[in-house]
Amino acid sequence: MTTDTVERFLAALDPEHREAVGARPREEQEILAEAWEKELATDDELDTLDELSPPAAEAEAARRVLDRRSE
Fold it and tell me: Which one of 5, 24, 54, 58 has the largest count of C-beta atoms within 10 Å of its C-beta?
């Protein structure tokens, strides 16, 4: 398993978003990955989901981060 936050964030995205975010500059990817990690660390709902399915929690956090960025 990779410890690179950007790689982990990209892996949590669905294929369509993974490709789109992967095409963005590295600096922007890092900002999104940091927001993703913060979402995972601070959202109590994701803690519960993480206990059941860590990949599902990571995917949900990634979706939320991208949704906020598109607003």
Answer: 58
